[in-house]
UniProtKB/TrEMBL annotation:
Keywords: Cytoplasm, Endonuclease, Hydrolase, Manganese, Metal-binding, Nuclease. NCBIfam families: PRK00015.1-3. It holds the Pfam family RNase_HII. Belongs to the RNase HII family. It is found in: Cytoplasm. One of its GO terms (biological process) is DNA replication, removal of RNA primer. The keyword ATP-binding does not apply. Its EC number is 3.1.26.4. This is Ribonuclease HII. Endonuclease that specifically degrades the RNA of RNA-DNA hybrids. Residues 16-206 form the RNase H type-2 domain. It catalyses: Endonucleolytic cleavage to 5'-phosphomonoester.
Length: 206
């Protein structure tokens, strides 16, 4: 017997212009935190679209292409390491989402945010939904765009510093990544405000 997964809900408020927004890379040691915001057409339907962590890399790339062609509007924003180190990762994540929303045309009448933290933006009402990327299509769409754009960035800078294997770990704190930091020190892409090694806070900058 084949079980089909039910499609996610479209949005919270069907009568409003509503965007979904999400971020990727919040827990990484290197690279930007990346956010996206998406407004989908009212008749959009796709039973493959889900939380980016629940679909394969191949499917994510296919969904990115589909979403870019079919969504009413989308915005993607990187907030880079220097700003993360200045304003902290939570504020950087929210900033990335707000800048992505600001790129939308038209601006939404309501914002659906993945997670439990956000700050009011241009007096637009918002709702925070825990695990929203697995509940609503527009938040799932934002999670796909944020993840694929960030992965692409990390794969590009991997060529500059291949010893950290960012092509595979995408900057997350894997054992291999930490061992490379221990051996080679840090780069301009590392977040210096993060605890990069458990036993060491001050690391040589390369």
């Amino acid at each position: 017997m084949v079980y089909l997964r039910a499609m996610l809900a479209h949005q919270l408020h069907p009568d409003l212009i509503e965007c979904g927004t999400d971020e990727a890379g919040r827990g990484c040691l290197a690279g930007p935190v990346t956010a996206a915001a998406v407004i989908l057409p009212k008749d959009f339907a796709n039973d493959l679209l889900n939380d980016s962590k629940k679909v394969s890399a191949v499917t994510r790339k296919e969904l990115r292409s589909l979403l870019e062609q079919s969504c009413l509007s989308y915005g993607v924003t990187h907030v880079f390491m220097e700003e993360i180190d200045t304003i902290n990762i939570l504020n950087a994540s929210i900033t990335a989402m707000q800048r992505s929303i600001d790129k939308l045309t038209p601006l939404p009448e309501h914002i659906a945010v993945d997670g439990n933290r956000f700050k009011s933006f241009k007096d637009i009402p918002h709702s925070c939904i825990i695990k929203g990327d697995g509940k609503y299509l527009h938040i799932a769409a934002a999670s796909i765009l944020a993840k694929t754009y960030r992965d692409e960035f990390m794969e590009n800078i991997h060529e500059e510093y291949p010893m950290y294997n960012w092509k595979k770990n995408k900057g997350y704190p894997t054992k291999e990544h930490r061992e490379a930091i221990r051996k080679y020190g840090i780069t301009k892409y590392h977040r210096k405000s993060f605890r990069l090694l458990p036993e060491q806070f001050a690391l040589d900058f390369k």
